[in-house]
């Protein structure tokens, strides 16, 4: 063998022995690594013969290695994946909710913990309301009146779901009215609500009253005597009715059984209850009266002799208005001590009520008018405009809305959420609508004529 061949043969053996040594060393290292449960293997790769340089090429890989050829190594790495957790909390604050028909609600934004990809309601939310598919926010303006109903809201993602239950009712905005029938043809003059019962009394004279638990189906009741029963209210567990043309009054715990009582005077036109006291006002004099129980009455004095037509209570204050036409009103913190107030213009102010932080008075009981007035304190008043020229006879407040009805044989009504801006409404038939009240989620109106016609909304 020549020297060149010997050198090549020696070099080949040297390379071979070097590779064997490296492989042995790496095998030992890998075994030591496995003892420590370490999945990292080290590979030293040599590519020698074909290049004839004697150079050793090494590569380091993380993971599971596969030798695929002359000095090439491929590796498969191990990645980290974050697991998705199901929503762990879903809370709506404020349930049960009561919304006004046709009015946009303040969006209900729940507190949610976790990622949400879908929100649903079962059953479907009331018409006009919707739920955001990823935030679970409930919004919209309900269009249909309904009693309280429960809705299960489900917030979910691929890992699971969380539920919450809300209760929603929708009350009438006075836009839809249905005719009802009272038990007999009377001059129905006043209606009120208390203790789950609507009660109506009749004028000119009569011993008939009526009661209803729903404002739809009415039952005839008997008053203690035949009188011109002019006004009725409820407070402190008792109904109180007062006669205009005599000293007679009556009380009832249930609107069914009545007991006659006595007032000191006559000409009474309105009675209300507030802060533990019944207060009555009289037409054509300075006379008022107070009672804590509706049985025993004490004479009080209003600031001036007026045709006092209506009295109400709200925000710690009694407020009375008069017809004439006049600008006269009065206020009292206790029904005993009264102070004269001034309405914005001279009208026949026939009815006053309180709701949502506002006193509202309407005029026209003795002659058509478009004038109303509102006050946040019962002292300072601002003129407002009703939607049509009518004998506005009664105004009431319930669940976010003021509703007014008119006498003078008409279908005219009006509604307002703030006592400032009014919208025309239509009663079910042309009647002399004399009185209006709110209770148990509905407005109820009565008429005289005489008449058997009442109405409820919805």
Q: How would you sum up this structure, described in words?
A:
With 458 residues, the chain is mainly beta. Helices cover 7% and strands 57% of the residues. The chain is built from 1 helix and 33 strands. It has one helix at residues 3-35; strands at 64-67, 73-76, 89-91, 97-100, 111-113, 118-122, 129-131, 138-140, 146-157, 160-171, 178-194, 197-203, 206-212, 219-227, 229-235, 238-243, 248-252, 259-262, 268-274, 277-291, 298-314, 317-323, 326-332, 339-347, 349-355, 358-363, 369-375, 382-398, 401-407, 410-416, 423-439, 442-448, 451-457. It has a 13-stranded antiparallel β-sheet, with no helix packed on it. The protein has a 6-stranded antiparallel β-sheet with strand order 19-20-21-22-23-24, with no helix packed on it. Strands 4-10-9-6 form a 4-stranded mixed β-sheet, with no helix packed on it. A hairpin with a 2-residue loop joins strand 31 and strand 32 (442-448).
Question: Care to give the gist of this entry?
Answer:
This protein is mostly beta strands.
Regions with little confidence, pLDDT below 50 for 5+ residues? 1-75
Helix content: under 10%
Structural class, from secondary structure content? mainly beta
**Whole-number mean pLDDT:** 86
Strand content: over 45%
Main sheet properties: 13 strands, antiparallel
Q: How far from one another are the termini?
A: 119 Å
Radius of gyration: 42 Å
Shape: elongated
Number of helical segments?
1
Q: What's the layout of helices and strands?
A:
Blueprint: H1 3-35, E1 64-67, E2 73-76, E3 89-91, E4 97-100, E5 111-113, E6 118-122, E7 129-131, E8 138-140, E9 146-157, E10 160-171, E11 178-194, E12 197-203, E13 206-212, E14 219-227, E15 229-235, E16 238-243, E17 248-252, E18 259-262, E19 268-274, E20 277-291, E21 298-314, E22 317-323, E23 326-332, E24 339-347, E25 349-355, E26 358-363, E27 369-375, E28 382-398, E29 401-407, E30 410-416, E31 423-439, E32 442-448, E33 451-457
Parallel strand pairs: 4-10
Antiparallel strand pairs: 1-2, 3-5, 6-9, 7-8, 9-10, 11-12, 11-33, 12-13, 13-14, 15-16, 16-17, 17-18, 19-20, 20-21, 21-22, 22-23, 23-24, 25-26, 26-27, 27-28, 28-29, 29-30, 30-31, 31-32, 32-33
